[in-house]
MYO5B protein
Amino acid sequence: PVLRLLEAQLQDQRGKYEEEMEALRNQLDAVQEELHKQQQASLQTLQLSPEVQVELGLQQEITRLTNENLDLKELVEKLEKNEKKLKKQLKIYLKKVQDFEASQAMLPADRRPHESNIQVAIQRKEKDFQGMLEYHKEDEPLLIRNLIT
């Protein structure tokens, strides 16, 4: 019984090994075929005039950049969705904090936790502003006065 079990396990492992080898052979064949196609394309390109070679190179670069731009666009959309989700969560948490603070304010003074124990830190993203300042024309004297002081 033990010998049969070991033999069955050995045959099972051999089958898996052969399947893996077959998959690797197929993968190797596909890579070799792709390499052969690329070599043929390179040889054909070398036989073309320099102008056509440049044009083909430009087309390939445009295609690459277009694909890269699409990938970046997807990433931006994903990050924007995440930002919206986080802003919603922040609003919810701020509301909870305000509700909690309101409920604490209604408690008698001796049952309130110390104010120093409750700290809510909201970090704002620092923005580096550059450029023009937008303001209403009627606010101009006030703006100038504030800039001077």
